């Protein structure tokens, strides 16, 4: 829709909220990107946040701001005790049938979910230092995989536009991604030989030793699985996005960008030649370390001979106060890190792409983010859960339905290399046939 046809509205703030105007304007920017609306200082329609407001305004109660958000030297974070007191006031109703003003803090809920400021509240990290699903707002109130920011945005847009459901600027799409956690079937060349020797000498399993040597040195990796994945994407009219690591000596990463640079270059060039996309997979511990992050990116770009502008953090490592700034400072366009490894879920409460926000510097960033909701290891292989194939398919299709309902982007993660679970290739072929 041309911008001139978008419905104008103006933002009005109640007492005590002016210090947080930038944060509230950020939420409005998101609404304006998702729906045919635009802010105009002279508009008759008024969106008012907080107490008071013009007589005919759409009034939204303010609960998150200013009471539960602290602005300090390191930017914004939640005040834990105040947040405890107001958290229930952020809960949206399961359904809103009319186009009246939401009776809950829809603006605060959107900010809470998109910026991940809740991750700056005290919590017990998991064994990889990640924010766990159990500590999230959604889990706390038993809301499962509900897209809370999408629901709140829909309520606000319906009130401003006077239509239920409100028209949207976004459209449904499928984004197929592949993290390249290892290039061949091993991280270092001697690993298959060492493990095969153990199979033969210690465990007395010669057949297993031969199988391990074949998988390690004669499997055709990396091109075999990469070509299979490109073929999968092409059959379903999609583009594959391969996110590769840069040089790293961390034991949690694979060193292939340094030790197998020629093989990596050949694979990445073939990916691009076939019309697919190469991105960046920053290593473990880089989510809050801009120096190591940038060194790895530069190393990957040296191998590729070109820039990379999108990707996902390895092991889904994420620091809400640092990671978006690191990516934005490096000129990255899209980050698909936000996900819970143990859930099919929308970690930021939305299935739509959205602009990042710097909690440290209190400003909107050029970087866009998307939630990765359907992941191979979260569904199959018993790494995090023991789902049957039918259970996994039902869960993945429910995520796709959420994306269709809100005209969002269904982001799928299917790793390169030999799948750890039999039937993974067939599962994703069937799933993509149903959704793409």
Structure explained in plain terms:
With 436 residues, the protein is an alpha/beta fold. The protein folds into 3 domains: 159 residues, no CATH class; 228 residues, Glycoside hydrolase/deacetylase (TIM Barrel, Alpha-Beta Barrel), CATH 3.20.20.370; 30 residues. 36% of the residues lie in helices and 15% in strands.
Q: At the third CATH level, what is the topology name of the largest domain?
A: TIM Barrel
The geometry reads as globular
CATH architectural designation of the largest domain: Alpha-Beta Barrel
Helix-residue proportion: 25-40%
Query: In angstroms, what is the radius of gyration?
Result: 23 Å
- What are the segments in which pLDDT stays under 50 over at least 5 consecutive residues? none
Mean pLDDT metric: 92
Order of helices and strands: EHEEEEEHHHHEHHHEHHEHEHEEEEHHEH
Largest sheet: 5 strands, parallel
Helix count from the secondary structure assignment = 15
What is the element layout, followed by pairings?
Layout: E1 7-13, H1 21-34, E2 37-39, E3 46-49, E4 58-60, E5 69-72, E6 75-78, H2 80-86, H3 106-115, H4 137-140, H5 148-161, E7 173-180, H6 191-202, H7 206-217, H8 223-235, E8 240-244, H9 256-259, H10 261-273, E9 277-280, H11 290-304, E10 310-311, H12 323-329, E11 334-335, E12 354-358, E13 363-369, E14 372-375, H13 376-379, H14 389-405, E15 409-413, H15 424-435
Parallel strand pairs: 1-2, 1-3, 3-4, 7-8, 7-15, 8-9, 10-11, 11-13, 14-15
Antiparallel strand pairs: 5-6, 12-13
Helix pairs in contact: 1-3, 3-5, 6-7, 14-15
Structure described in brief:
Helices cover 36% and strands 15% of the residues. The protein contains 15 helices and 15 strands. It starts with 6 loop residues before the first strand and ends with a helix.
């Amino acid at each position: 829709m041309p911008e001139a046809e978008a419905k104008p509205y103006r933002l009005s703030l109640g007492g005590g909220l002016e210090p947080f105007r930038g944060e509230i304007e950020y939420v409005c920017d998101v609404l304006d990107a998702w729906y045919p609306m635009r802010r105009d200082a002279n508009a008759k329609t008024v969106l008012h946040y907080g107490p008071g407001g013009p007589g005919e305004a759409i009034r939204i109660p303010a609960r998150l701001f200013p009471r539960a958000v602290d602005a300090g030297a390191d930017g914004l974070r939640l005040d834990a005790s105040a947040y405890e007191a107001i958290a229930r006031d952020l809960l949206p109703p399961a359904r809103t049938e009319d186009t009246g003003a939401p009776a809950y803090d829809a603006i605060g809920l959107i900010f809470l979910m998109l910026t991940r400021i809740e991750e700056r509240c005290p919590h017990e990290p998991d064994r990889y230092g990640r924010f766990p699903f159990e500590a999230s707002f959604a889990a706390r109130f038993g809301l499962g995989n509900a897209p809370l920011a999408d629901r709140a945005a829909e309520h606000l847009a319906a009130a401003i536009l006077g239509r239920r459901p409100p028209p949207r600027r976004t459209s449904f799409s499928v984004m197929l991604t592949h993290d390249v956690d290892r290039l061949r079937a091993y991280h270092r060349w001697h690993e298959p030989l060492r493990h095969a020797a153990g199979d033969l000498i210690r465990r007395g399993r010669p057949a297993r030793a031969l199988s391990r040597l074949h998988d390690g040195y004669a499997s055709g990796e990396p091109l075999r699985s990469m070509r299979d994945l490109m073929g999968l994407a092409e059959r379903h009219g999609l583009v594959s996005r391969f996110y590769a690591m840069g040089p790293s000596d961390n034991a949690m990463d694979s060193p292939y960008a340094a030790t197998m640079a020629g093989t990596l270059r050949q694979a990445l060039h073939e990916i691009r030649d076939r019309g697919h996309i190469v991105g960046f997979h920053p290593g473990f511990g880089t989510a809050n370390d801009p120096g190591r992050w940038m060194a790895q990116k530069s190393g990957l770009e040296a191998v590729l001979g070109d820039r990379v502008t999108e990707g996902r953090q390895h092991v889904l490592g994420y620091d809400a106060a640092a990671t978006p700034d690191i990516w934005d400072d490096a000129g990255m366009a899209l980050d698909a890190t936000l996900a819970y490894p143990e859930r099919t879920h929308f970690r930021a409460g939305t299935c739509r792409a959205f602009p990042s926000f710097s909690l440290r510097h209190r400003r909107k960033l050029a970087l866009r983010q998307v939630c990765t909701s359907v992941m191979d290891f979260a569904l199959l292989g018993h790494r995090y859960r023991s789902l049957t194939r039918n259970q996994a398919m039902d869960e993945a299709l429910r995520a796709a339905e959420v994306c269709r309902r809100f005209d969002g982007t269904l982001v799928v993660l299917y790793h390169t290399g030999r799948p750890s679970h039999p039937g993974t290739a067939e599962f994703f072929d069937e799933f993509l046939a149903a959704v793409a």
